[in-house]
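Ticket #4471: structure export looks truncated?
Reporter: QA, pipeline team
Priority: medium

Steps to reproduce: submit the single chain below to the structure queue and open the exported record.
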Amino acid sequence: MRKYFAPVFMLVIFEAVAVTLWLTKDNIFYLFNFSYIGSAISLGTFLFIRKYKYARRIVQLLVGLYMLIYLGLVRNENMQIEGFWYYLFTGVFEAATIHYAVAKIFGPLLFGRGWCGYACWTAMILDFLPYKVPAEPRKKIGWIRYITFAVSLVFVASLFLAKVGNIERIMFWAFIAGNAAYYISGIALAFAFKDNRAFCKYICPITVFLKPMSYFSLLRIKCDKDKCISCGKCRRVCPMNVDITDNSRKRENGTECILCMECVRNCPKDAL
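Actual output as written to the record:
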């Protein structure tokens, strides 16, 4: 039963968050919200342990579609980074600020960039494209993410400084426009670089939060050097170009690991 510790552990963590937010915010929505997400992630982890091929894809669809359609389109919550800035400027710890705190600021201290691998609704679509394994070495244009990060901040700050009315409605349409821009640029980059995750590596502003925190992540993939035969297969199948055979926190592209487990699945010696 020890091998099922991971799904149980993830469920317990999310249930703890769900109950805590429900009681402190006096809003039962948070109980259902985080219980659902935790259950989906736990299910995916369980299916992976059972060696089900599409375990991660199931989690991506369950969580990604929920956040995109239900939270974004039905409840009109901007769960993109602009929504985070909006609630931050209004001084309200709700919706996007809670989401970012759990999934993208403090959460990565526990599960690294697992958000990118299992819950991101942008990557959910991009992972359907044909270039699952990068065809070329990683390009040195990751600085672009800081530009998109700054643009999102300046955009929302300008609305507040200009005292624009009905900002909530603007945030909803910013969510629609932002997602369209992400999908279009993500798909274009995937075909241009023959790499499904090119958008994640070079453009996505969320990684500005994720990368520094994931450096200290508790959950990490490690290599058993005694079993490793240095075949290089793990490097070849990694969508994020991570050198997973290096167990140090300074391993190449270490903060890019999305815990997709492709290296684990493909290792011929079960060294990971």
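Status: closed, not a bug. The export was complete when the record was re-opened. Leaving a note from the reviewer for reference: The mean pLDDT is 93.
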